[in-house]
Task: inverse folding
């Protein structure tokens, strides 16, 4: 039995489907009051909360392996420590944790530094583990960037000229599935990236081709982006953390950690990583006037 924590995320949902297709028994953690109807029928739902270690111990009863992912939150370090402690108490055989690219180093960015702390805690826990460190998700482009394109064809971000090897969430799930179902991965840390490092100017060029109209990228200030995120309803903490992440991408520049391209996906799955062109071609973006 494999417990998936974060099954409603894009990675978690794709992972659950892949595990089920491999004949695995899957249990998915849901919080009290959350509907379980959107989970695959073959997946078992169990109630629990990352803020409540006792509920996690109950959810892990009879579980051999755990996949751990959560949404960004100020309490994420406590949450993940709770899950790791519960896995240790229930003698889980393997815990696979979804982290972030760059968490193996030092960073002032909230998202990265929190993952660094969680990774160290897992490594020191004595549990057999695998750490999966994906880069920024390609799905952010059609889901966040495209809707923000102005009538003029311009979109804004505080990325400067940073290059980022964005990765498809389904490829991250495929790597996690291999780690959970195949031998020989315990103790590994996998950087998971797309096949190329793209600047947002590159993204604009790809969108121009996909949408059949000229799209351009304009660098925005951190303050302007923060205000836009707050205006869109994000919390002050979340808006600040996102701005901080893009500040870190700017520090990485055109050839730093965020631009590195790994071979993890092809090595573990036997197929190339999906590209932005692959994703845009698959979803078929309409032209916007």
Result:
């Amino acid at each position: 039995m494999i417990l998936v924590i974060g099954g409603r995320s894009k990675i978690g949902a794709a992972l659950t489907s892949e595990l089920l297709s491999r004949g695995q028994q899957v249990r998915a953690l849901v919080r009290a009051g959350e509907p379980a109807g959107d989970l695959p029928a073959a997946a078992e739902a169990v109630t629990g909360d990352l803020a409540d270690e006792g509920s996690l111990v109950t959810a892990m009863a009879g579980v051999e392996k755990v996949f751990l992912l959560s949404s960004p939150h100020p309490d994420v370090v406590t949450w993940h420590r709770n899950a790791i402690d519960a896995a240790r108490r229930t003698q889980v055989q393997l815990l696979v944790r979804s982290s972030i690219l760059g968490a193996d180093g030092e960073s002032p960015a909230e998202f990265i530094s929190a993952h660094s702390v969680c990774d160290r805690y897992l490594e020191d826990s004595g549990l057999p583990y695998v750490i999966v460190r994906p880069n920024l998700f390609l799905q952010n482009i059609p889901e966040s960037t495209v809707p923000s394109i102005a009538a003029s064809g311009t979109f804004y971000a505080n990325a400067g000229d940073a290059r980022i090897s964005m990765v498809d969430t389904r490829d991250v799930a495929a790597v996690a599935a291999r780690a959970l179902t195949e031998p020989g991965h315990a103790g590994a840390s996998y950087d998971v990236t797309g096949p190329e490092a793209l600047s947002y100017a590159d993204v604009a060029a790809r969108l121009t081709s996909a949408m059949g109209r000229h799209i351009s990228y304009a660098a925005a200030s951190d303050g302007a982006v923060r205000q836009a995120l707050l205006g869109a309803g994000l919390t002050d903490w979340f808006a600040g953390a996102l701005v901080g992440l893009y500040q870190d991408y700017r520090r990485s520049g055109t050839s730093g950690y965020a631009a590195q391209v790994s071979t993890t996906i092809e090595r573990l799955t036997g197929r190339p990583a999906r590209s932005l062109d692959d994703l845009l071609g698959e979803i078929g973006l309409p032209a916007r006037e």
